[in-house]
Structure formats: structure tokens, C-alpha cells
Amino acid sequence: MATAPATVVPRLKLGSQGMEVSAQGLGCMGMSAFYGPPKPEPDMVALIHHAVDAGVTLLDSSDIYGPHTSEILLSKALLGGVRERVELATKFGISFADGKREVRGDPAYVRAACEGSLKRLGVSCIDLYYQHRVDTRVPIEVTVGELKKLVEEGKIKYIGLSEASASTIRRAHAIHPITAVQMEWSLWSRDVEEDIIPTCRELGIGIVAYSPLGRGFFSKGAKLVDSLSDQDFRKNLPRFQPESLEKNAQIFERVDAMATRKGCTPSQLALAWVHHQGSDVCPIPGTTKIENFNQNMGALAVRLTPEEMAELESYAAAGDVQGDRYPPMASTWRESETPPLSSWKAE
User: Domain NADP-dependent oxidoreductase: where (predicted)?
Assistant: First the structure.
């Protein structure tokens, strides 16, 4: 068994309601879904235990990962006293019924989804429960109103949003304090910095950065695509298409060269850049290998000067990154506005 890295993992406060987590979390999606076939369950349980022993306490999942298999995997990893050592985060809001993808935020669905996750996870309370995507048919006030009831009933501790616009975050926060907003934030995904990050900071909301390594791009560069299985959804992402990859590969080469000068790996350098965004930011890099987990933990020891931060950012200026984050028609924060509360008629 690989030994846990020696790096001491700091703690940080997420939001203003009292939640504390490890300064780096663990994204669990790729263990069960979307990044190729599901990985062997015993290996993934061992990886999660290794992460917890190393000091990582924020475990991030969703009911759509699998669907459901990620939460079932976590339920097995949480046995034997592990549950008491972690902050458990999962999400709701994307349903696959009859082969059709649908985003839902109506109260009945919110409640049913929560009950389903509690059962699969084998817990009585979820520490951080996110709306994974915003249902643009339901006022955000209605969705958060139901989440507030779940808090009052002790079924969830803290409420989060994912891929929500600044105005949606404000409206939600007015109904019940939002503890964390999860957004894609990395060297090549920086559009959240203009409006969303300042809004979170103004309201005292923590920031959880998903895909801080550009979905693995900052580990291998363009070579990553050659290693992806046909079941890996990254093959469909615009940034990984041949017409985008050639230009994006130049970004990686610059980051790689700087990492060599710094005596670290390119993924450690890219992850360190996210860590340097502030003490209210928790990146959640995912992995399926203990070796890669240990490498990611090494990012906590990488120190960057303001000049080095600026140099890194110059490599991936907005116009330099080719391709969108998601294919067309995917729901992101740019399409997260919901109707006004006055339009809602409860059934």
C-alpha cells in the first residue's frame, strides 16, 4: 500500500455558516462515470481511504455519476468510522429518465433526490448538498426553499450551487445562506473571475473549483487524448477536438517548461495556481490512481510569486484557449437564469 504523502493539508472555511474542509478535496466522478469504464471498486475504496489518511476530507460526488454508482461506492468507503472523518458532498438536479436528460429543481424532485442519495450513501445527513445544474423553469427561490426545509429537518447541513450565474446565486442566497458554489476554474477556464467569484466573495460564499487540471489536460497535454477510451466523454469536448488541440497544446508546453524550472510537475503547477487564488477556494481534482493523488497533494507545497502567477496566466489568456468547456446545448452558468418567483404556481 502506498504511504500517504507527508504534506500537512491545511483546513479552510467554506462559506459563513461554519463548514470547514481540507484545503484540497477529492472529486469522485471519474471513479464511476464519464471518464471511461467504471474502475474496480476495491481499488477506488482503497484510494478514498488513502486520501482520507492523507488529510483530504472533502469528498465530492453526485447522483448522476453512474448514475447512482458513485454514491454507492462512497457508501462502502465510508464504513468503519470513515464517515466521521470526512465532509460528504453530493449533488442533485440532473435526471436521466427513459434515455432523456432533464434538469429538475421542483420541490418534489429535490426531496425525492435527497432521500435517494441519503439511502444510497447510507447516511442520515449530507454535509454539503448542491444543485448540480439550475432548472430554468423553476424559480431558484422555490428550489432553495425546499433545500432550506431539508436543512431544518436535519437531512442536509449546508446548501451549494453548481454552474449558477451571479444573479442566480444572489437570489438563492437571499432565501437561505449558500455555503459553496462549485464552478470549473483552472488556468484555461477563467470566465468565472469576472462576475461569479466577486459575487461569492461579497456574500461570504466558499468556492469549490472542479476540473482544476483542465480535465487532465495539464497532466499530459495533447497526449492525454490518445489515452482516452471510446467511453470517455472528454472525447466529445470542444477543447479536445483536433482543431482546438494544436493551439491548446502550446499552452501546456509553456506550463510544462515553467514546471521544469520550478522543479515540479505541470499538473502541480496548474493546481498550485488555483490554490493561490485565495483561502476561500477549495479545488477538487479527481483521480483514480494513488500515484496521481500523491502528485496532486504535492501542489500544496508549490509556492508561486505574483510574477509567476502573472506569467502562468499569460500562457492561457482568454483568446488563447480554443474551444468551449462543453458541447453546444449543455447547461452552464451562462444559461442558469430562472423565472421570477411571482410566476410560480405550486401544484
Answer: 28-314
Q: With beta carbons less than 8 A apart as the criterion, state whether 287 and 293 touch.
A: yes
322/317 Cα distance (integer angstroms): 10
Model confidence at 274, in pLDDT bands (50, 70, 90)? very high
CA distances from 126 to 53, 106, 156, 200 (A): 21, 19, 5, 22
Alpha helices (H) in the chain, listed in sequence order = 29-32, 41-54, 69-77, 107-121, 140-152, 166-175, 196-203, 217-220, 223-226, 242-262, 266-275, 290-297, 306-315
The pTM for the full model equals 0.96
Tell me the C-alpha distance between 133 and 48, whole Å: 26
Phi and psi of 287, rounded to 5°? -160, 165
Rounded to an integer, the average pLDDT of 50-66 is 97
Q: Which is nearest to 322 in space by CA: 265, 242, 216, 220?
A: 242
Mean pLDDT for 44-48 is 98
Q: Give CA 303 to chain center in angstroms.
A: 23
Distance between CA 96 and CA 242 in Å, rounded?
30
Active site residues: 65
Domain residue spans in the chain?
11-329
How far is the C-alpha of 319 from the C-alpha of 309, rounded, in Å?
18
Q: Which three cell numbers stand for residue 179?
A: 455555503
Residues 6+ apart with CB under 8 A from 305: none
Pairing of strands 87-92, 126-131: parallel
217-to-83, 201, 251, 321 alpha-carbon distances in Å? 32, 28, 10, 12
Q: What is the CATH number of domain 11-329?
A: 3.20.20.100
Report the C-alpha gap between 341 and 345 in whole angstroms.
9
